[in-house]
Amino acid sequence: MGPARVVVGASDSLSSRTALYRAAEEARRRGAELWAVLAWEAPGGDLSAHRPAGVEPLLDELRRTARRTLLTVLHETFGTAGPGVPLRAVLGRGPAGRALVQIADRAGDLLVVGAGRRGRLHRLVSPSVSRYCLAHAACPVLAVPPSPLEADWKAAHRRNALRLPLDTRHFTEETRATVPPER
């Protein structure tokens, strides 16, 4: 069966980084390995049966890019010290939900996913990874809510893009409570 595992979805998003921190905490608590999984897809999906000749170099480059992205996310999240538990960086091929469920296939695993805030339009065009995992996983799933800082970061980013002045009144009460007062 192998050692206990905490499998976590990884991407270059704030909700993913929140999930990575929580997964590392769970792995430490359980004495488990941490498996960080970045799912990637070839453009057009998985058309392995209808793959034209000469596509392999492109797929190899996509795989290398996904690996670099995963290693960068892990380094930016945990730094050089790492998460404090054995860490395995894993690439999953296919849609994120399906890839995560296929890798977290043991009953003793814990699957950790970010449950980012999703608007109506986003829900229509992109299926929810956390919902897919909750519906199909063979192991317990922990859906980690987004950091309260995420909404404020996105609002600040929008204001910056529109060249609007940044005003702390736009931050949520919850965020202001987490920032220590200046001395």
Shape, principal axes of CA atoms? globular
Cα separation of the termini: 53 Å
Q: Biggest sheet: strands side by side, in what order? A: 3-2-1-4-5
Query: What is the strand tally?
Result: 5
- Integer-rounded radius of gyration: 18 Å
pLDDT averaged over residues: 84
Q: Any idea of the CATH topology of the largest domain?
A: Rossmann fold
Please provide the ordered H/E string of secondary-structure elements.
EHEHEHEHHEHH
Strand proportion: 15-25%
Query: How many helix segments?
Result: 7
Largest sheet: 5 strands, parallel
Low-confidence stretches: none
The CATH class of the largest domain: Alpha Beta
Number of domains: 2
Q: What proportion of the residues is helical, as a percent range?
A: 40-55%
In short:
InterPro entries: Rossmann-like_a/b/a_fold, UspA. The chain is α/β, with parallel strands linked by helices. It is built from seven helices and five strands.
Keywords:
183 residues, alpha/beta, Rossmann fold, 2 domains, 7 helices, 5 strands, 16% strand
Characterization of the model:
There is one protein chain. The protein is of the alpha/beta class and 183 residues long. The chain has two domains: 5-146, Rossmann fold; 149-183, no CATH class. The protein has seven helices and five strands. The protein starts with a strand and ends in a 5-residue tail after the last helix.
Compile the SSE list and pairings.
Blueprint: E1 5-9, H1 14-30, E2 33-40, H2 56-78, E3 87-93, H3 96-103, E4 110-114, H4 120-125, H5 129-136, E5 141-144, H6 148-161, H7 173-178
Parallel strand pairs: 1-2, 1-4, 2-3, 4-5
Helix pairs in contact: 3-5
